[in-house]
Amino acid sequence: MRARTAALARTAYLLTGDAHLAEDLVQMALFKAARAWHRIEGDPEPYVRRILYNQNISWWRRRRVPETSLGSHDHPTPPPDDDLRLSLEAALAELTDRQRTVLVLRFFEDLTEVQTGAALGIGPGTVKSTTREALARLRTLAPHLAELLEVGS
Amino acid sequence: MTGEQLRDELARIAEGAPEVHVPDDLYRRGRRATTRARVAVAAAAVACLGLIAGVAVPLVAHHDVEFADSDELAVPDRIYAPPSHMTDLEDDLEVGVAAGAFVTDALIPVVVEADSGTYHLLDLEGFTQGGFFRTRLGFALSPDGEQLAWAYADDVESGHRPSGIRVADLSTGRVREIRVDQDRAVLIHDLAWSTQGGWLAWLGVEMEQWDTDGVSSGKRTVGGIVREGQSSATYQVVAGRNANRVFEQDGGQTIDGGATSAVAVSDTGKLAAVVGWSFFLNGVRGRLEQDPSLRIGGLWFLGEKPFGLTYSADGSDVPAVRVMPDGRSSPIRSTLDQPDLLGALGPRQVLVGPGDDGDDPSGVQLWTWNAPGGGHATGTFIRLYDGVLGLTLASDLIDPVQPQVVARPRPDWPWSTDRWWWTIGGGAASTAAIGLIVLIVVRARAVRG
Questions:
Q1: Rounded CA gap, B313 and B296, in Å?
Q2: In sequence order, what are the residues at sequence separation of 6 or more whose Cβ sits closer than 8 angstroms to the Cβ of residue B9?
Q3: Which of B233, B240, B289, B322 could be a cystine partner for B329, CB 3.0 to 4.6 Å?
Q4: Band of residue B448 on the pLDDT scale cut at 50, 70, 90
Q5: A38 near B CB under 8 A
């Protein structure tokens, strides 16, 4: 799993919008997976990812995580399309936790509506409506990204 | 742009994710945490079982014995020893007819009521508790269960200790005192009622010294009889200096072969006693055969004829009922190889229990014999629990033809301080353990998601 840590960190970063929280989330997911290692059969990554999603949801529910904006950490700025990316980051930060998570699972993790719903413990219909609401909100917040956000939902 | 473009943009943002440090010992810590959780679950399970055993089992056990159907006086089918933490004694001896009387390990006298099975721990004035005798206690319940006799010795500032027998009428609580000492204090170690309860026999040793400075027995064993209702006793020298083997121990003296000490009185007032190798019958002293392993587990009269329970200390001979001193012997087939007489019933029947040094503490049997063919024993019909010493039973309450006892519940003894602490501690530990289990289960479910 150590080799997949970077991929997990990327997902965690998108889910939390915070570098430190993302690191905590990945470490906690790996620790929990280590505790249950004897029960894991086959590829452990899907199992760890489930822990990652659920732990993030658990954090929302406990309301321990305040809304934070993406880009608040001090990493070097990537080179291309800085204006566009920052706009999207800023717009993502304005979404609710659920909306952001649904978008990450649907468009970054490439899960179907059914898989996303199963991962988050909500129905596919809710996933669909949440996706639609999230994209609409992003279009409102960042009209210049309308073309980017023209996706079938 | 399409969904592909959004995915690409998200991926580009995700490139800014931090580098996550994974500790080298993460998996080892995980395994340790799993082990700790399992140990916690096991501990919780043990704690739960402990709580159940400590609280629920006694409650269940409390109801597993049927109560008597009637209020008739009867001997209980089980006799329990009160727990050692019970030290509150009653000085009111008006407890009603008793079914049995015994002394606990802590030498506390106890009587068991015949009509309710209630246990009374008694404060008996001056009770000697057998003094330095190891197995004889000077304590006897009358056959009808209405009188309790015990040996006493009062403290005095000078001179020898006034000593003798006190007899309590358990219906009224009144105590009758029969002083027996003459020139010396007498430590009474055996008391026995006649079969019909009209006489009480005693047997003791004259004391050279018996005070706070030391204890030293004299050379003579003395005995006598008391008629029902009277306050004086006869006083006879039953055995001389050679009867007992007396030796020093820890600054005091101990009488060896304690087994070989028994007394009885007939319903007409004949006294019989065995002390060591000496046999005494109605004023005449004789000798038993000097078999080092011979023991006498009890003495009683059938009419005018004395009988004894004999056995060998080394198990070489089968227990027997013998016409004393050296008459015909009827071997008894029994699981008790060191029997102790608890009471005489009808002709040729006695109640027998395990001797204090015996190896079968299970309970009371009824022995029946028919000379000369020997005899047999019933199975155990009164169960005795550990810590019941020197038991005597109200034999009049047991039908010799159809011996019956009554089922009584285990007494509801108050809990000891230790038990309260263990229960409270166990309850708290169990609650914490259950909470921990719930937490573990909830978290495990969250992980499996």
A1: 10
A2: A81, A84, A85, A88, A148
A3: B322
A4: low
A5: yes
Q: Judging by beta carbons within 10 Å of its beta carbon (0-12, 13-18, 19+), is residue A116 exposed, middle or buried?
A: buried
Q: How far is CA B219 from CA B97, B248, B355, in A?
A: 38, 14, 26
Cβ atoms of B396 and B143 within 8 Å: the answer is yes
Reported as half-sphere exposure (CB side, CA atoms, 13 A), residue B438 has a value of 6
- What CATH number should be reported for the domain whose range is A82-145? 1.10.10.10
Assembly ipTM: 0.79
> Cα separation of B137 and B252, whole Å?
17
Q: Is the peptide bond preceding residue B325 cis, with omega within 30 degrees of 0?
A: yes
SS3 percent helix, strand, coil of chain B, rounded to 5, is 20, 35, 45
Pick from A14, A99, A89, A106: which is nearest to A52 by CA? A14
CB B364 within 8 A of CB B113: no
Structural domain boundaries in chain A:
2-62, 82-145
Task: Kindly determine whether residue B30 and residue A31, on different chains, have CB atoms separated by under 8 Å.
Answer: yes
DSSP letter at B54?
A: I
- Give the three-class secondary structure for B269: coil
Q: Which two tokens stand for residue B136?
A: 């004889």
Of A27, A38, A50, the CB nearest to B20: A27
Contact B173, B93 (CB under 8 A): yes
Residue B28 makes CB contacts below 8 A (sequence gap 6+) with none
pLDDT score at A75: 45
CA–CA separation, B225 vs B384, rounded Å? 30
Dump the DSSP string for B354-405: E-TT-S--SEEEEEEE-TTS-EEE----EEE-TT-EEEEE-GGGS-SSS---
- For the segment B348-382, what is each residue's pLDDT rounded down to a tens digit? 888 888 876 554 557 888 888 875 667 777 777 88
User: Exposed, middle or buried, B269 (CB in 10 Å: 0-12/13-18/19+)?
Assistant: middle
> Quick one: pLDDT band at residue B18, thresholds 50, 70, 90?
confident
How far away is chain A from the Cα of B357, in angstroms, using its nearest Cα?
59
Distance set, CA B235 to CA B150, B179, B205, B312 (Å): 17, 10, 12, 31
Q: Compare B200 and A33 and report the one with higher pLDDT.
A: B200
Q: How far apart are CA B337 and CA B295, in angstroms?
A: 11
* Cα B132–chain centre separation: 19
- Length of chain A, in residues: 153
Which tokens hold the place of A121? 């413990």
DSSP state of A146: T
Query: Where are the domains positioned within chain B?
Result: 124-288
Choose, out of B1, B4, B9, B28, the residue to mutate when testing the contact with A (most A CBs < 10 Å).
B9
CA distances from A142 to A70, A87, A145 (A): 15, 7, 6
Nearest to B9 among A34, A85, A121 (CB): A85
